[in-house]
Write a structure and sequence with these properties.
mainly alpha
Length: 266
């Protein structure tokens, strides 16, 4: 068992995270002002950097909630610094989510901070630790969609609107996928403390394959269509049209060339 306590240096924001935040700010400004010679490149860098920021905040929320619930070891592990390189599996936490955004426009739930659950007492605390990550995605989605549902888009450049729409889509998909009660995902972590020991023992061997199972289901055309119908309905209720998310994704994939439909519509 780790016995380290959390010091002030363990909570100092990592220069790596500050660098990613700076990239988000600069490329967001380039997207807004049209400074970039190729708008798609600016949108790609802005959305990717902002997505990584949200992944860091997702894991930070898990760790911070665990700290206040009794696991004082999270500080020594570097989880409170927002440094993505400190996660237990950088490939699952950062690389794969970014690749899935590039390939399919899906907000893949990130992997992983190791919480010493034996330090934590009370079912509600365990559930809250698991819920804290996807709730961060919900909050991030609310920020991205605020200009749309507040009808505050006057003067906002179209490319920046498209980028926000696509980023909102990623946050909504991440939140929904994370909240699924599937072993290995945060949704299962929310309900697990309330299950019997027998059920938990039976489910435990399937936890490493839960995410693979979900994405295998999403390859089924009918399930994929139903899933994105739900996503589109949520976004439309928040003021984001299918056109906005479509053009945001088209701009993001700048290597495929300019989409005349989105360009003409500006």
């Amino acid at each position: 068992m780790t016995t380290a306590t959390t010091s002030r240096s363990d909570r100092r924001i990592s220069p790596v995270f500050l660098g990613i935040l700076a990239v988000t700010a600069v490329t967001g400004w380039a997207t807004w002002t049209g400074f970039a010679e190729q708008p798609g490149v600016a949108v790609f860098l802005f959305v990717t950097a902002a997505w990584i920021v949200s992944l860091c905040l997702h894991e930070y929320a898990h760790a911070r909630t665990a700290l206040h619930s009794g696991d004082i070891s999270v500080g020594a592990k570097g989880y409170l610094t927002l440094n993505p390189m400190k996660y237990t599996h950088a490939l699952l936490s950062i690389v794969l989510p970014v690749l899935f955004v590039i390939m399919g426009g899906i907000g893949l739930p990130g992997g992983a901070v190791f919480i010493e659950r034996n330090r934590i007492r009370g079912r509600w605390r365990h559930s809250l630790i698991s819920a804290a990550g996807p709730l961060t995605n919900v909050l991030f989605a609310a920020v991205c969609t605020a200009p749309f549902w507040l009808h505050a888009l006057d003067g906002v450049p179209r490319d920046f609107q498209f980028a926000l729409a696509f980023l909102a889509l990623l946050q909504v998909t991440a939140a929904i996928l994370n909240f699924l009660p599937v072993p290995g995902l945060d949704g299962y972590g929310v309900i697990e403390p309330w299950l019997s020991y027998k059920i938990k023992r039976q489910v435990e061997p399937f936890a490493p394959f839960g995410l693979l199972f979900v994405f295998a289901l999403l390859w089924v055309p009918s399930i994929n269509t139903a899933f994105f119908d739900v996503i589109d309905a949520i976004l439309r209720s928040l003021g984001i049209s299918d056109f906005g998310t479509y053009c945001g994704q088209e701009l993001y994939r700048f290597w495929q060339g300019t989409n005349e439909f989105c360009s003409v519509s500006q």
